[in-house]
Write a structure and sequence with these properties.
Blueprint lengths: L14 E2 L2 E8 L5 H4 L7 E4 L6 E4 L9 E7 L4 E6 L9 E3 L2 E3 L1 H13 L2 E6 L5 H6 L5 E2 L7 H4 L3 E2 L4 E10 L14 E5 L3 H4 L8 E5 L6 H9 L5 E5 H10 L3 E13 L2 E2 L4 H16 L2 H9 L9
Parallel strand pairs: 6-9, 6-10, 13-14, 13-15
Antiparallel strand pairs: 1-2, 2-5, 3-4, 7-8, 10-17, 11-17, 12-15, 12-16
Length: 303
């Protein structure tokens, strides 16, 4: 790895529709291959034009001084919509400290861009309507990139690919999707969780609707026998299984759904800056190291 120095200069800021211009010039530390302008293979990127996930087999990082100009709601800060819901190991709070893979990725991005990350806990049902109000820059709380969400936000390239799973009581006979026929399966209404169960053998779907995180509500229903099983993110359910000996994961659902950062529509410069920085974090090994720190039992999904 070649050693480079970061020289950040904040350009003169100008107020424009409640947003401020934040310009930076800096040197980045690149591997020798990128200094020689060689292609980086198999690097999955999200197009900055429309957020569609696409693969660019010959994407090349720039080898010279990069200048980025972008806008944020508040100069020097990245205002992040999130939740105080315990979604470990992805994101959770201990006191006032926000921990997990996702917050650490956000901190790494902001460190490269000379920004301070500031999180705002909002109801999950208000994430995207709040983003469109123009008071926040991004949504970053385990957001699977879907067509519905792309109508509200422009998404970065994914920083992770994640699976779903089905949770049951420990004494349940359920071992596979076929065992759910006629049984009550709970999930968040309109979510990718229930979409992942679309091919199951005719379970009785129980949809949960709430302004607040519904996993605690579903867990209570499962423990009380009102549900036979529930479907949710595998990593979250692994944490539940580890803390509650009366519950177990019946089987995983290998969905490998991409999660990304949702950017307020129209801020192409910020979207590009976030994408470029995520690509740098992937290439220099920062992203894989954070993944191994927080999600050690799962292989890093990008090569």
């Amino acid at each position: 790895m070649l050693k480079g120095k970061i020289e950040a200069a904040i350009a003169q800021s100008s107020r424009r529709s409640l947003r401020t211009t934040h310009a930076q010039t800096y040197w980045i530390t690149y591997p020798q291959s990128t200094q020689q302008n060689l292609p980086i293979s198999n690097l999955a990127c999200v197009s900055s034009n429309d957020g569609v996930i696409s693969r660019h087999p010959h994407y090349v990082l720039p080898s010279a001084d990069i200048k980025m100009s972008f806008t944020t709601v508040e100069s020097g800060r990245l205002s992040i919509i999130a939740s105080d819901f315990d979604a470990r190991p992805i994101s959770y709070l201990e006191g006032n400290n926000r921990l997990g893979y996702e917050p650490e990725v956000a901190r790494a991005i902001c460190n490269r861009l000379g920004l301070e990350p500031v999180w705002f806990n909002l109801p999950m049902t208000e994430f995207y309507t709040s983003l469109s109000d123009g008071k926040y820059d991004v949504v970053c709380f385990h957001q699977v990139i879907t067509q519905e969400r792309r109508a509200w936000a422009d998404f970065t390239r994914p920083y992770g690919l994640f699976d779903k799973a089905v949770l049951v009581r420990k004494d349940s006979p359920i071992q596979s999707p076929k065992d759910l026929k006629g049984l009550k399966l709970g999930g968040l209404a309109g979510s990718t969780n229930l979409e992942s169960a679309a091919d199951f053998s005719d379970p009785q779907i129980i949809e949960f609707n709430s302004r607040n995180p519904i996993l605690p509500e579903m867990l209570a229903a499962l423990r009380q026998g009102e549900l036979d099983a529930l479907v949710d993110d595998e990593l979250l359910l692994q944490a539940v299984e580890a803390s509650d000996p009366t519950l177990r994961i019946a089987f995983p659902i290998p969905t490998q759904l991409p999660s990304g950062i949702g950017v307020i529509p129209g801020n192409r410069e910020l979207l590009q800056a976030l994408n470029d920085t995520l690509n740098q974090l992937l290439e220099d090994g920062t992203l894989v190291n954070l993944w191994r720190q927080w999600i050690p039992d799962k292989p890093f999904p990008f090569t």
